[in-house]
Each structure stands twice: as C-alpha cells, then as structure tokens.
C-alpha cells in the first residue's frame, strides 16, 4: 500500500510538471500569434491614423486595448516559463504588475516609431523590416538556440523570435540576460531615434490632425519610465 501511495505521488508530480510544460507551450504559441498578427495589425492601424490625421474615439480605445493585450501576452509567457524553471520562483503580483508595465511602456514608443516610418515611407517599410529582421535573425542564431527537434523547425523558431525582437525583448538563451537585453534595447532605441529625426525633417508629409509634437515626447517619457522599471 505504501508503494502504491508513493507511485501515485510520483505520478502526480509528473502530471503537474507536464501540465506546466503544456501551459508554457500554449503561452508561447499565443505570444507568437500576438507578434505575428496583432502587433503588425496595430502598427498598420496607427500608420493609417497618422496618414489620415484623424481618429475616432473607438479607434484609440482599440489601439490602447491592443497594447495592453500584447503586454499581457508577454507577461503570461514569462509567468508560464518561470513555473517550468526549478531555479526560478513564481512571479508574484507586484512583480507581475512591474513586468507588465515596463513591457507596455517600452512597447508603445517602438510601435509608434515603426508606424510613423510606415506612414512616411509606406513603400520602404518592408525593406526596413527585412534589414533589421536579418540582423536580429543572425543574432538569434549566434546565441545557439536549440529549442526545436530538427534544423528546419529551429530556423522557423528563430525567424519568429527575430520578428518578436523587431518590436520587443525576448530571451532565447540561458544565463544572465542583462547584457543581451541592453544590446537589444540600444539597437531598437537607435533605430527609433532615427525614425523620429526623419519625421522632424519631413513634418509636412503628414496631416496636422495628429499631435506628433506631443506624442513623440510622450513616447520618450514612456521609454524612460519603462527603462526605470526594467533596470532594477
């Protein structure tokens, strides 16, 4: 009878670990869907708003909801990942709020920068994405990812991760992430600043209905707040 109880407990622990693993996989798939579908759509909507120079209240509500949904997907995956790592403690409520906020605050300036570039140069944004995506794909490859069972699937995984990195930070390697995250942050910040500088030299290309002279400084403030939450 004691052996039977031990076997049931061992089986229960295995089932719980397997359930955590499945939860992490589901969260990752949701995250991939978010950055392959929702984020590009959000960028397109913002670009259309910038080009038209006007937006209805429901559009702003939809844009804000999309930003929160993307940040929630990042938080959901991070929480699921930590449950599968014995060396990591579960993310508490306070830490979850901070993680959600810093992703939201860092995501907004990046998406706005890409949308602004799309509004200014709609025929060049694909080249912009492709150029940065290839650099990010190379960076992911250099980190030696080994997540998928075969080489073809691994390259598909790397391509997806490179797409996420175009918009936001996503860790793909073990060990300390601060150095890699800093490099990625500086890379995206430099690109976003170039877009803002480009806008300042082409101010007459867009309608004046959207107050970019307010949105861009506000985005800079959001970035600094997100950075302040991210660094500790």
UniProtKB/TrEMBL annotation:
The keyword Membrane applies. It comes from the Eukaryota. Keywords: Apoptosis, Cell membrane, Membrane, Transmembrane, Transmembrane helix. It holds the Pfam family XK-related. One of its GO terms (cellular component) is plasma membrane. It catalyses: a 1,2-diacyl-sn-glycero-3-phospho-L-serine(in) = a 1,2-diacyl-sn-glycero-3-phospho-L-serine(out). The chain crosses the membrane at residues 57-75, 90-108, 120-143, 155-173, 185-202, 208-229. GO terms for biological process: apoptotic process involved in development; engulfment of apoptotic cell; phosphatidylserine exposure on apoptotic cell surface. It is a multi-pass membrane protein. It is found in: Cell membrane; Membrane. InterPro entries: XK-rel, XK-related_scramblase. The keyword Signal does not apply. Its main location: membrane. Belongs to the XK family. This is XK-related protein. It comes from Neovison vison (American mink). The gene is XKR8.
